[in-house]
Amino acid sequence: MSLASTLTDALPMEALLRPIGALFDVAKGARGCLFTFHRAAPSALWERLPNRNFYLDLAYLDGLLAYLKAQGWSIVTMDEAIARASADRPGDRFVNFSVDDCYRDSFEEVVPLFRKHAAPVTLFVTTGIPDATMPMWHAGLEEMLLRKDRIIHNGKTSDIGAALAKRRAYAEIERSWEGPRASALYHAFCADNGFDPAELREKHAISWDMLETLARDPLVEIGAHTVDHPRISALGEADALAELVACRERLCAKLGRDIRHFAFPFGRAADAGPRDFALARRAGFASAATTRKGVMRRRSDAFSLPRNTLNGAARSLAMAELHLTGLSGVIARMLGRV
Questions:
Q1: Average pLDDT value for residue range 3-12
Q2: Quick one: the chain helix, strand, coil %, rounded to 5?
Q3: Angle between helical axes of 237-255 and 274-282 (0-180°, round to 10)
């Protein structure tokens, strides 16, 4: 169980957490909370997914959006979040939701849910997905495990009929594949288990046609998330800048609009630092977002914005309130998890 889940099990209900944020606002002014997640799935499917913590349960997301509106939070684009933080109006509270990577479910499930609530959403696109240049072995592996009750791995056949067995198999195989040989190992696994990698990609990859449709939606804001999803801090300066510039230019060219905002693929303190924030500015962006927990205030640096990851297993409004108040960021810093 994660630290966050443990905390929310022990803390009072969300109604008791809300006044804490209000007290901070008296001293510090306007407050924004940037949420991020990767994928979403209907409740029945979410329960069975081998990598379900990578997804939000759509029913939970639906309830969270309704809750935020009922509590007087404004749901805004990244553009508006930056403007409102700068204006620093007393009592102003706003939330931005961003989706990283962008898979097919962003088009089919996520954006339609935000439309239902008349709420905007920011999509940070990894262009290697619609361009079919980035291996999508995580999604393909999960799809195979979801469909099969028995798999062949390393010459051995295993029974994975139960949901827990699928989750354990996913975790074990993912760990063993991480690294430069992942693509080759994935293709061998597909062959052993009778799957076509192209068909698996088609099921999960967002296309340029889908993105062009989304770009015309006034509730959708498009941002950049690199070409190949690397850890930016691990790259040399020239290669790191190329990832940012190439992604921005590709999105501008394909979608016919300026791409103003960027999100680091890996956004903790060890993954993106001052050099990388400066590179985002050089690449022509107006902001860059991390995954360091915290809230957005008037003095927040636009090129190292805090974002709070919504973990699929933390399906409680109390967990959301920890992020909204900024307490999750305080706790993370106290424990050195930044």
A1: 44
A2: 50, 15, 35
A3: 40
